[in-house]
Amino acid sequence: MEIVQVPLPPLSEQIQIAEILTQAEALIAQRKESIRLLDELVKSKFLEMFGDPVKNEKGWEVKRLGEVSSSRLGKMLDGKKDTGNFHKPYLRNTNVQWLQIDLDDLLVMDFSPKEQEEFSLNYGDILMCEGGEIGRCAIWKGELQDCYFQKALHRIRLDIEELSPFYFVHYFYFFSQFGGLERFMGAATIPHLTGEKLREMKIPIPPVKLQNHFVELLGNIERQRILNIQSLRSSETMYTSLSQKAFRGELTFANETYSLKEFKSLDSDRAQETISHPKERTAAKSKKPKIIELKPTNVDFYRRTVLAAEIVWQLHKEPTFGHLKLQKLLFLCIRTSNMQLPVHFSQQAMGPYDPQLMRSIDKQLHEKKWFLYDKDKSLKYEPLSNAGQHQADFQKYYSSEQENIFSLIKKFRTTKSDTVEIVATLYACLENMIEQKETFSESLLLKKFYDWSDRKKVFDELEVRRVFQRMKDYGILPKGI
Asked: C-alpha 366: how far from its chain's center?
């Protein structure tokens, strides 16, 4: 047997090495505890705002799920799943975990063009397990292009005028934790949540404004959670590196202690960034020259591109979608949510328009390999290799505005560009009336609309009035009207 000699440092060095590794372990434990506390905070806020999901102690209006959504099961597996010419990835029960989609171990099977339309997934769809842990659900956020779903899953499309997808999945999560799903399991050995049972399930409908407030809080908490997860991974990587150095006898107490202090300092700054008041955060950053940041203008231009990418991502398969509709939807998203982005909408023939905007956005979408614009194709935007990878940044930048963004996209998904042009122009005219402190009247609004440019004369007055009525019904109006 070969004798292996292990170098043994002096006792004083052993103690120092143990101290360094203990500090690194403490950082890891600290981050794990922070993540656990953030998860508890979500639960606490949900119960505070909406009450016990089983008892409905707040007395919210209750509706059958079939009244506020449409649902269907996915494609049934059969012996021909490995044949055909249209092999596509699909989600199974195991891919849908509570509140998140797990894309590891995806399988493929044949989906004909008709089936691709039938079993498609749109951003904001809910995927819910039909068997196993029934009711387990998550939001589809466009994680993968051309992905479909199998019969073990329900696809639920909510009426977002009544239910936020984020409220919905958290309601079911806590409903399950509080034992609410047990009565749907029945006496079967393997429980199943049939489509009929699903549609008959009753769900409390809190005010949309309260749901949106929860979504905003959730976005803030999630940003902190992401930072803590990133910090945890960095801590674990550092611990592995320190352990390897210790084993090789390369650990230097002075250097590693300094590195740990630096890491703790930067780690603390990252955590503080999500918690501090914005003004305090700005002051804190000014004292930390080691944190390298993009100039605000660069960040704003990128935020603008991310917003455009989300709209394109959701609408690129629609034949009515192109430059005009994209620009008008950007205008409406920015104006209705009061976003501060680098745009310069001016009075052009086809409504409020930024002549430089589309060229800049198309260039950025192409450079990031998200989408390629081709005006000669029936579907103007072609997904590229990185399509969908904007999602994490969209969540980071627009968590508080996403309900409004999704609502606008849904309302105008199949609407012709001309109609969206009317909406954007009317909105700009209303803003002008507020700015000029003019008393609102529909006749004055129509006059401003037709005075906008000669092109507006192609629109029938009855059509413009109908569009304005829809804007009022949907609440697409500037504050002050």
From this structure: 22
Work out the angle at residue 102's Cα, subtended by the Cα atoms of residues 99 and 108, and round it to the nearest 5 degrees: 135
Strand partners, 267: none
Asked if residues 366 and 372 have their Cβ atoms less than 8 Å apart, the reply is: yes
Task: Tell me: pLDDT of 8 over 80.
Answer: no
Please tell me which residue, 5 or 208, carries the higher pLDDT value.
208
The number of beta carbons lying within 10 Å of the beta carbon of residue 89 is 17
Maximum separation of any 2 CA atoms in the chain, in Å: 99
Q: Please report the DSSP string for 79-110 in residue order.
A: TTTT-SS-EEEEE-GGGEETTEE--TT-EEEE
Q: What long-range pairs does 367-370 form, CB within 8 A, spacing at least 24?
A: 368/305, 368/309, 370/309, 370/312, 370/313
Tokens of 171: 């309601």
Domains of the chain: 62-205 (3.90.220.20), 298-474 (no CATH)
Q: Which of 263, 272, 267, 262 is nearest to 224 (CA)?
A: 272
* pLDDT for residue 298: 66
3 state DSSP class of 405: helix
Query: Angle of helix 402-411 relative to helix 323-336, nearest 10 degrees?
Result: 140
3-state helix, strand, coil in the chain (%, to 5): 55, 10, 35
Task: With beta carbons less than 8 A apart as the criterion, state whether 358 and 326 touch.
Answer: yes
